[in-house]
Amino acid sequence: MITKTIDILYNNNDASDSDLISIINCSDTEYLFTKAVKRRKEYYGDKVFIRGLIEISNYCKNDCLYCGIRRSNITLDRYRLTKEGILACANEGYRLGFRTFVLQGGEDMYFSDDDVCSIVYAIKTAYPDCAVTLSIGEKTKASYKKYKDAGADRYLLRHETANASHYAKLHPSSMSLDTRKQCLWDLKELGFQVGSGFMVGSPYQTDSNIVEDLRFLQELCPDMIGIGPFLPHKDTPFKNEPSGSFLKCLNIIAILRLMFPYALIPSTTALATISPHGREQGVMAGANVVMPNLSPQDVRKLYSLYNNKAFSGSEAAEAIEILKKQMQSIGYRVVTDVGHVAK
Length: 343
Ligand code: SAH
Description:
The protein has 343 residues and is of the alpha/beta class. It has helices spanning 2-12, 17-24, 30-44, 83-96, 113-126, 141-149, 164-170, 177-189, 207-220, 246-259, 269-274, 278-284, 297-300, 320-329; strands spanning 47-50, 52-57, 100-105, 131-135, 154-156, 193-200, 224-229, 289-290, 333-335. It has 14 helices and nine strands. The strands form two sheets. Strands 2-3-4-5-6-7 form a six-stranded parallel sheet. The longest helix is centred in the N-terminal third of the chain and has 15 residues, at 30-44. The chain is globular, with a radius of gyration of 19 Å. 48% of the residues are buried. The protein binds S-adenosyl-L-homocysteine. Residues 66-67, 104, 106-107, 135-137, 157-158, 160, 199, 228, 230-231, 233, 270, 305-306 line the site of S-adenosyl-L-homocysteine.
């Protein structure tokens, strides 16, 4: 019985590989989500934390096969925000109630470490009660240290897949899983609150790959864990690959909640893109963070990681009232809070 298996996970924060695979694929999800929500409420009550996502650049030196802003996509109009532009986004975000700003971008070599530091420092000086999260890819430990010294609090870097041969199918040969993992260890050692994660249903992914992802996360013990369905992008080699499964994503969110009760787990934009009520359903499966888009309106469509990215309605930071109502309607409360991890 799947309920017995879910009880094992609930009671031990862990389960065997084969039990995890059964839960990943279970179709009777009511019991799973009830348990995940119970655990989530013990740690976070009815709070939903919001993060203002500022997509600072869609230039990227990398060529990840799944990603719409990969270097080889020559059809894409490229943009980068200025320091002033980024500060204006933060200013608007603060006014709307955001107390965490996530600066995300491609690996844009235009921004020197000094540039990144001066942006981080400016935000932290203007809004000392806010957290700054960076998500700008793989850097040296020395660079990460500079960002930390400038005041950055958190760093998001999904490992994407913890299986080296799967990693090699999703990335060019110049990239490696070992480097990606080393970055995560470096970030931890430097005292960042670290986020990692992976795509669900990326091409060639197997269920045992997903278990390997969960095992790697157990080793890493990240503060934040982001997952979302793989979605194809029309100008990538994976354009004809099928999207990841929405239901599988929800099941994995619930599993993550039970394995990592303390974690900050976003209900991601990819989840909201693949299903009209994906955002709410992610929260009802155990997620406790949402990251509306605070980027200037005209660049949102250019930060196109995948087709049809959701960026209006409750995805848009300026529509925070809609998001609040959505969350209220399912029994949760959006809070104005820096939203640190409950570890
Ligand atoms: N350059 C940064 C930010 C990458 S974009 C970095 O390397 O971390 C943020 C996340 O979007 C990626 O980590 C990836 O997991 C996800 N993503 C990229 N392309 C995607 C796609 N086609 N479908 C779903 N998620 C995607």
